[in-house]
Amino acid sequence: MSLLEADGLSLSIGGKQVCKALEFSIESGQCWAMLGRNGVGKTTLLHTLAQIRPTYSGKITLNGIKSDQLSKHDIAQQLGVLFQQQEDAFPATVLETTLIGRHPYLKAWQWESAHDHDIALTALKQVKLDHLLERQVSTLSGGERQRLALATLLTQQPKLLLLDEPTNHLDLHQQIHVLEQLKTWADQQQRALLMTLHDINLAWRFCSHALMLFGHGEVVCGTIDGVLTEQNLERLYLHPIQKVAGKWGQAYLPL
Fold first, then answer.
1. What is the pTM of this model?
2. Potential cystine with 174: which of 131, 152, 170, 197 (Cβ 3.0-4.6 Å)?
3. Has residue 129 been placed in a domain?
């Protein structure tokens, strides 16, 4: 059964058609890249799939159940969302912020258990922030705050992560490390990822599937081998692209 399935999904914003009659599904273990030019509607589509933006025609199902029939509590146990920018309304430490990921599993006025703390600590180790447990979030760099947001999602333990530019604010080493951790998480625990990316080569390296938004409602999706071609990429970004083969595999370069 698909973790998430879009059936005849059509979506517009500001008079712009993001997708028209979109059909695709995300299965356990898959890692999807969403690619497209700035302003084409990637974030809008991601938020719609997450039920943050409810206005659309068509159907979205999570584990075979229509998403509009699920409570917010149920949805939070099945999928997690990373936003482009992180906002912290109240002062909190790194550990306290990570533990927010356990809230979908707690009853009213229930405190986090030792088991919840263990899950949070494991997630912080995965993103290399376990040495900053008592640091105030307000003192973190942009890259550290991004890794903390990802740790909070890993602590949430949903079946599917919807990530809006997860490599924001991260240096080269941290980009590779974080994406490796996320891919391993999806592979080993039979979960899945859908993430918007601007780096074609990161999509090629870490993703099994891709969804391309061309504008005017046109979408192409499928396996990474079938979708990431020079012809598709040149039409997607309106710029010439050359595929280069090297010792460690292939790369796509703008000309």
1. 0.94
2. 170
3. no
